[in-house]
């Protein structure tokens, strides 16, 4: 039951964090909207607009944004709109924002999730067995490969992979999603390998590993015990650091590969000054980050019961 309470508390904290971000976004927008009105009026005046035209612009701007409504009522309406997914209208796509994002978020997650899974699984296993074979041929091969991947920018890797696919060097021509998945996995793999190896090395010198080796335990059994003890720092990298890297990588991958995903909509919104779409493409990324941190808390509580007991004492 304590683990259930732990999960409920972390879920409540995640929801509270999401609405805190939404609240801060509202007040940032509210504090800048008057400045935008003044800029629009100044541009119209510089263009030779009459007083009647300026007043018409002012009235239209105020009416469109409900500026004549008290701020607390606008705030409540904002929270209701967020909760009911009424996120405004995209002028770049001439559709509601939620309709623009519907399908695009799934498209982005469609290559990000498998790419992350491949990077985490391969990186952890390679780093773990490299640590157990420290300074051996396998360890040096893994380390050199990780250093090489660190030195290759994502867009270079994607372009080169597309070239190999087009020239037939790659046996099966890769589709856009397979190409994007491979690019994400390759861009994250090096960090996973190095961090998993470092975390495993911290465990290999401990007494339980020496005892297992003295008993003649094979490498697979050693790896299982080392991984169990190194899981917490590995999970920390897998969830927190990967999210930070992915925020940058999805913009590069979708622009180069041509996937109609979240990053593509965000870039178009920025180019065409589509304020509503810029706000909500950014907030969707924030929401995904909050969800990732919640999953990290869930894994922490599952892997280490001490985390749950510490939260219970608080």
From TrEMBL:
Key word Repeat present: no
Chief site of localization: membrane
Keyword Protein biosynthesis assigned: no
Keywords: Cell membrane, Membrane, Transmembrane, Transmembrane helix, Transport
Membrane spanning stretches: 12-33, 111-132, 144-165, 177-196, 230-252, 277-300
GO CC annotations on file: plasma membrane
UniProt membrane topology term: Multi-pass membrane protein
Locations listed in the record: Cell membrane
A biological process term (GO) from this entry: transmembrane transport
Domain ABC transmembrane type-1: from-to ranges: 105-296
PROSITE patterns given in the database record: ABC_TM1
Family according to the record: Belongs to the binding-protein-dependent transport system permease family.
Annotated protein name in UniProt: Dipeptide/oligopeptide/nickel ABC transporter permease
Gene source species: Halosimplex carlsbadense 2-9-1
């Amino acid at each position: 039951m304590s683990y259930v309470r732990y999960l409920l508390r972390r879920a409540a904290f995640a929801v509270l964090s999401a609405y805190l971000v939404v609240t801060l976004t509202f007040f940032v927008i509210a504090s800048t909207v008057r400045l935008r009105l003044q800029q629009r009026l100044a541009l119209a005046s510089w263009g030779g607009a009459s007083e009647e035209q300026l007043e018409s612009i002012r009235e239209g701007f105020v009416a469109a944004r409900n500026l004549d409504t008290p701020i607390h009522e606008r705030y409540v309406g904002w929270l209701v709109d967020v909760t009911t997914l009424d996120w405004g209208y995209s002028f770049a796509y001439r559709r509601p924002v939620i309709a623009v994002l519907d399908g695009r978020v799934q498209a982005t997650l469609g290559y990000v999730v498998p790419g992350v899974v491949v990077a985490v699984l391969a990186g952890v296993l390679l780093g773990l067995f490299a640590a157990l074979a420290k300074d051996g041929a396998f360890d040096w091969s893994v380390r050199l490969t990780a250093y090489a991947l660190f030195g290759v920018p994502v867009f270079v890797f994607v372009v080169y992979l597309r070239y190999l696919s087009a020239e037939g060097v790659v046996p099966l021509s890769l589709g856009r999603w397979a190409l994007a998945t491979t690019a994400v996995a390759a861009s994250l793999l090096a960090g996973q390998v190095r961090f998993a190896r470092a975390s495993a090395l911290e465990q290999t010198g401990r007494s339980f590993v020496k005892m297992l080796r003295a008993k003649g335990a094979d490498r697979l059994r050693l790896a299982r015990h080392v991984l169990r003890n190194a899981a917490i720092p590995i999970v920390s990298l897998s969830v927190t650091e990967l999210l930070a890297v992915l925020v940058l990588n999805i913009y590069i991958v979708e622009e180069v590969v041509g996937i109609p995903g979240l990053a593509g909509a965000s870039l178009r919104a920025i180019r065409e000054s589509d304020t509503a779409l810029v706000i909500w493409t950014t907030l969707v990324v924030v929401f995904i980050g909050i969800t990732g941190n919640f999953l990290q808390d869930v894994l922490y509580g599952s892997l280490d019961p001490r985390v749950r007991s510490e939260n219970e004492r608080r």
